[in-house]
Amino acid sequence: MIFDFMEAFNDNMFVLFLFVIGIACAAGGIPPIIERSRRRGIENQLPGLLESLSDAVGAGRGLQEAMLEQGRNTPGVLGKLLTETLESSHASSFDAALSAFASKTRSSQVQRVVVLIDTAIQQDAPLQNILSDLAMDYERLNDLMNKRESELAGRGILIVMFVCIGLPVLIAFIVGLFAPAKSGYQINDFNSTFSNFFAVASAVGALVSGRMMGRMRDMLWWVPFWMSTSMLLYLGAVKMIGG
Question: Distance of CA 171 to CAs 164, 174, 190, 212, Å?
Fold first, then answer.
């Protein structure tokens, strides 16, 4: 059945070629999604870690000891990276270990926090108050970021679903219903023009969605996939409905 469906597009090899390219590019678009999910998981755990460090320092614990203890008690990637880095810090200084930890997280939030902690240590500033203030600030920041991303992600997905899926299927239903090929209508050129239009519209819609979510560069990997999907949906639906 799949081969029969694919054979129906023998007269439009560009669609099949674009679909293959889209699948290959989509494989390249998955790692950025995984990396971003990892980074956001670390950043969402950061305020809790800072608050625990503030309590531990206020109880008279040393910063390195408190970090090692909280790293072991913190689940997820953040605790694992912190524990591994500090446990290997016997071969280097504590400052170098903190820098290595910040680098491994690949998070701008963690890197800024490490710089502030290092500066506070050098200036002999009250760490407990600084850690507590940082925890509150980053908790508010992450709440705002999560709310914004949730709202924009919903709108971005809606744009992609409508432009790349809903619109081609709707137009294909109208064309197949009122100008069916089984009734003798010759609309090959019309279908070719409309399929190209949906490909361009899908590319624009995907890029607009990526721009809204602040991930336009990552969305470039998915543009060929959505272009080919809209073309396949339109041409396939026309053939199924119109005969």
Answer: 12, 5, 12, 26
Q: Identify the CA nearest to 43 among candidates 140, 181, 142, 118.
A: 142
**51 and 120 within one domain:** yes
Residue with tokens 């054979």, as numbered in its chain: 7
Q: How far apart are CA 83 and CA 71, in angstroms?
A: 5
Q: Are residues 105 and 11 in the same domain?
A: no
Pick from 222, 171, 187, 83: which is nearest to 213 by CA?
222
| Torsion, Cα of 45, 50, 55, 58 (10° steps) | 170
- The parent domain of residue 194 ranges over 2-38+146-242
Residues 30, 88: one domain?
Answer: no
pLDDT by 10s per residue, the chain, length 243: 455 555 556 667 788 788 888 888 888 889 999 999 999 999 999 999 999 999 988 888 888 888 888 888 888 888 888 888 888 766 667 788 888 888 889 999 999 999 998 888 888 888 889 999 999 999 999 999 999 888 888 888 899 999 999 999 998 888 888 877 666 667 777 888 888 899 999 999 999 998 888 888 889 999 999 999 998 888 888 888 776
Residue 142 identity: N
Helices (H) and strands (E) in the chain — how many of each? 11, 0
Torsion of CA 61, 66, 68, 73, to 10 degrees: 130
